[in-house]
Structures are given as structure tokens and as C-alpha cells.
Amino acid sequence: AVVSTQSTGRTAMKSHIKDEEMEFSSDESDLEQEDHAQFLEICLPTSRLSLSKINRSLTSTGIHNLPPELIFEILEYIDVATLMSIVSFVSRYFYDLLHSSEFWEMRLAGCLACPEMPANSLKLSDQELQKMHHVGLAQAVFKMESARSLKFADSVKRHVMSGNHYGDIHCVKLLSYPAKQIAISGSRDKTICVYDLKSVGNPRECVLNTNTDHNGWVWTLDQEDGKSSKIVSGSWDSNIHFYDIGRGSLERISDLSVHSAILCTRYEKDFLLYGTYSKIVAGYDTRCKKVVYKIKNHTRPVLSVASSPEYIWSSGEDNALVCHDRRMNKLLKRIRMERISSSIAYSEPYLWVAGYDGFIKCFNQEMKTLKKIDSGHSQPIMDMTHTMGATVTTFKDGVIKVFSPNISPVCWNAFNLDSPASCVDYKDGYLIAGCSDSSVVFWRNTNLDY
Fold first, then answer.
1. Does 115 score more than 60 pLDDT?
2. Interior CA angle at 395 toward 390 and 397, to 5°?
3. How far apart are CA 259 and CA 255, in angstroms?
């Protein structure tokens, strides 16, 4: 009986101690969850936190017990691809954390931070943030960090390709094509060169193909829908050539002859827009092989063209910036700029315009001016490319600047060239520029895969 009584007492005591430990553990978990919430609220005061999705499974030891500030600091040193493919599968806590919009908004704030702005200021418009949520915040952060990392000299290699052209380079293009990693350039020597980006450090193996189909200066190159194996070239010889580059070389598939020099192109899915020296913007349907319309809203040659499903924008030597309504087929708005707009690009929801005055202007689709951005450079902007990862400009004095792609941009880096670059392109860790000394310059981030 005594033994039975003692055993019962021990069992009751153990049960009491266990209940106290569970209660203490629960209190500790609640306190740490409160600390986590307070930390996120400090970093993202405007975000709506869904803590139910970020519940940590505490263990007696391990990284989960570290303060949330330290966890976020550790994750800052890990690239996006590793976070999503490996770290997110370490535990339920990391999975929930890395699939929460709050974490990526914080990471985005770090990308866009600059000394004069607080790090927790996103500096994004509601439309920009909405677009990034639609595409995926992790993907947006990956693209921005790829561009931002170009400032780290130890991981960025510069390669100069010379001897392939003997005239000024007028157009360059980095191609988004899954099976190949390719860049192309067009020159005043009437040739198009194709480069293998994997062999960019070896000049003998880098050049895959040199095309001599044109009889005039090659002014423009573009890729269908930004991701197809089809590309188009336009030249001073008034000819447009369509190619398939799927096998690594330019295989000519069709042609279009017009009555004036081709100065700019915009290659949509099954549809080509081109601007000419004769002041016309025309639309060509590649399925029926017909020019379906011609628009004459300029009084001098057309230099650049951009489009959306609803509108066509163009700029010309007459200093005009024009918006044409595609649905109603009529001129919607015409603005006379102070200087020539050398390059325009549309990236939903904004139209980006770079000009000889050294400024970048941001418009909405109806061409209402939203912001005039000082590039910090007094020289004319010769070319501009805008992607989700960066806005890149090249200036007449040989300077290339890489900006964050938002409406309140931060200058991430600047490169100085021996010879001015008249054209530039950027895509996911690769930067290419075509120079007036006939050279093509590549910058490649060796820490990233193309």
C-alpha cells in the first residue's frame, strides 16, 4: 500500500511538473511570437501581417530559437534561388516565412535602399507593387538583386569583343531563349554578329555566326515577344529580315521590303511594329504577311517605338512623343518635348522615356507625366533599356548607369567606357553595350546563371 501510494504521488508530481513545463513553453512561444510581430511591424509599418501563416515550431535548440532580427540578417546573405529551392524546405517555419509577402517586401526594401532614404521605405507606387505581387515578389527581388550585384567588382567580369565589326555598333540584344544563351549585335558595316554568352571569355569560340544579308547599316534588332527563337533586323537598305536563331545561327525565314530606311522595331507575338526614316510607324502581321496599317504622326524620322495591347507610342527627330490608340486607330495625344527622345520603353504600368536632355521621364498609358527623373548626368542619353530588374542608360560621353527599375530610382552603379556606347541591353546578370569604336562590351555576373 505504501509503495502504491508513493508511486501514485510520483505520477501526480510528474504530471504537475509536465503541465507546468507545457504552460511555460506555451507562454515562451507566445512571447517570441509577439517579438516576431513587433519586429515585422517596425520593419514594415504598413504591411498587414498574417502571423497565423508564420507559426514557428519551437525546439529546445536550433536556429528557430534565434531572435527574428538575427534570422532575417542571416537570410540576407543567401541568394533568392537558394532560399526558394533549399532553405524553404528546411522546416515549416522557413517554408511559411519564405512564402510570405512580408519577407519579400522587406528584401525589396533592402534592394531599393539608399543613404538618404530609410531602408524600410519601399519607394514603389501602388501600381508597381501590385505588378510585382502579380509576377511574384521573389522573382522581382531576384531580378533586382542580379542587377544590383553588378556593382561588386569581384564577381563581375568585363569582356571586350573587338575585330568582329569594323563600323559603329548601332544595336545590341540579349536573347531570352531557354535552349541558348545568346547575344546579337548590328553595325554600320552591314553585318549582324551572334555571340555565345557561355564562351564570352574566349574570343575564338564566342562568335557563333556573322550574317551579311543586309546591304545597308543595321539599325535595329528585336526578339519576338521577348522570349521566342525568332528575331528581326531592320536596316538602312529598307529591308526587314526575319530569322530563327534556335540552332545558334541566323536562319532566314522571311523578308519585308519597304520604301524607306528602318530605324526602330517592336516585335510582338506574330506582329511587328516598325518606324521609318519617312516619318511612318507601320504594323506588319507576320501570319498573313501583310502591312495592316500605316500611321503618320511625325514630321521627321521615327527613332523609337513601344506598344501595349491598347496603345502605340513613338518618338521622332521632331521632338514629338506620340500616343496612338490601336483600338480606335486614331491619334490620342502628341507632346512636344524640349529635346529629342532617343529611346522609349513600356513596362506595365508605365511608359519610360529617355532623351538628349539627360532626364528619364515616366508617363502613364495616356501620357500624363508622372515624374521627371534626374539621371545625375548632363550628357544626352543615347539609349535606354527597362526591365523588371533594372533601368540601364548609356550617355554620349561613354558612361553607362544602372538604376533600380522603380519610379523613384536609385543609381546602383556606373561604368566608364573608352568609347561612347550608342546602344545597351540588360538581362538577368548580363549587360551588353555596343560602342562607336566597333567593339562590343559584356559585363557578366559570375555568381549568377543566365
1. no
2. 145
3. 14
Whether 355 and 340 have beta carbons less than 8 Å apart is answered as yes
- pLDDT tens-digit readout, 163-176: 889 999 999 999 87
As a whole number of angstroms, the distance between CA 53 and CA 43 comes to 18
- pLDDT tens-digit profile of 11-48? 544 454 445 444 444 444 454 444 444 444 444 433 33
CB 353 within 8 A of CB 367: no
Residue 106 φ/ψ region, left for φ over 0, alpha for ψ in the -120 to 50 degree band, beta for the rest: alpha
Place of cell 527563337: 229
Question: What is the torsion angle, in degrees rounded to the nearest 10, for the CA atoms of residue 252, residue 258, residue 260 and residue 263?
Answer: -40
**Does a cis peptide bond (omega within 30 degrees of 0) precede residue 349?**
yes
| d(C-alpha 158, C-alpha 422), whole Å | 18
Question: Reading across the β-sheet that carries 239-244, which strands appear in turn?
Answer: 218-223, 230-235, 239-244, 251-257
Residue 241's closest CA among 209, 207, 274? Answer: 274
Q: Are 206 and 196 in contact (CB under 8 A)?
A: yes
Q: Which parts of 166-249 fold into alpha helices (H)?
A: 203-206
